Amino acid sequence: MEDVTDPAFRALCKRYGADRVYTEFVNADALVRDIASTTRKLTISDAERPVAIQIYGREPEAMADAARIVEEAHPDFIDINFGCPVKKVAGKGAGAGLLRDVPKMIEITRAVVHAVHTPVTAKTRLGWDEPSLYLSDGTPFIVDLAERLQDEGIQELAIHGRTRAQMYRGEADWTLIGEVKNNPRMHIPIIGNGDVCTPARAKECFDRYGVDAVMVGRATFGAPWLFAEMKEYLSGYPGLQCSGLSAAPPRSMEEKVNVLKEHVLSSIQWCGNDERKGIIHSRRHFAASPVFKGLPDFKQTRIALLRAETVSEVFAIMDQIVATYA
Questions:
Q1: How many whole angstroms separate alpha carbon 41 and alpha carbon 28?
Q2: pTM for this predicted structure
């Protein structure tokens, strides 16, 4: 979620019912070196709580030092990223790269947990690739790994239902997530992640796999109201706390476009009131927004929207879209 879950977007997600938000992941080495663009990611507000600051790295000492720095920002959780599959992270032995070096993953977890008083959580994937999904005795790799991480003191584990080799291709395998959750030796909450794109799918994941929560990532791009839609759908579902819904989901295209406009303005403010920079920063959201998907003869309008560099240009195009397609 790099360049996605900044304070502007987190505020919208929170308004529409997200029970917890996470910062963009923070490079432990850069944080220890006090790189300004990295330390800026520690900016959180009380309105976001509960909020987790997410860190990644490949060396236990640096991760422990980074966790201590993060703790000074007073997050509710410190989350260790063992799941990022991108080459510049996993290829250097951090993120999902640690799925190939479980002893070091365990060492990092132990170092971080012992370094801070704040609850530590973690997120990972099912394994590095298909051949690594099961141990020699037939035990699922992720079941064994989850127990070992729990033994080191993490308070929750989020699992993305793909291997690192899959990246984001194919379908997420929730069967193995369910095996972790239903392992009688597990006592910490298990959060399922991967392809939770609709309210119906969220409910199915609770029903079939018994997870304690679902984590929604890419499906929220340009659609922070998805959390409110899910909570409406799940309302009254046994065992779920569907609280924190301070705004009903927008229904019409115009209402949803107005949310996107608000996000643009918030992004500009987050980017130091730099209009062009803020617009560029928020483009991935209105480029990916489901509001605009499937509209007929939309290609040229989409290109114009992604090239616009002023608020007046962006909003004029969005207003034209509403007038044409609503």
A1: 12
A2: 0.92
Topology at the third CATH level for domain 7-234: TIM Barrel (3.20.20)
Strands 26-27 and 190-193: unpaired
Using alpha carbons, list the distances in angstroms from residue 323 to 211, 224, 254, 262, 291: 42, 23, 9, 19, 14
SS3 of residue 5 by DSSP: coil
Residues in the chain, how many? 326
pLDDT in tens, 46-58: 989 999 999 999 9
CA triple 57-85-207, angle to 5 deg? 110
Q: Considering only 90-99, 153-162, 174-183, 297-306, which range has the smallest mean pLDDT?
A: 297-306
Q: Map residue 61 onto helix, strand or coil.
A: helix
Angle between helices 141-151 and 174-181 (to 10 degrees): 40
CA dist 286 and 305 (Å) reads 9
Q: What is the mean pLDDT of the chain?
A: 93
Active site residues: 84
164: left (phi over 0), alpha (psi -120 to 50) or beta: alpha
β-pair type (51-56, 77-82)? parallel
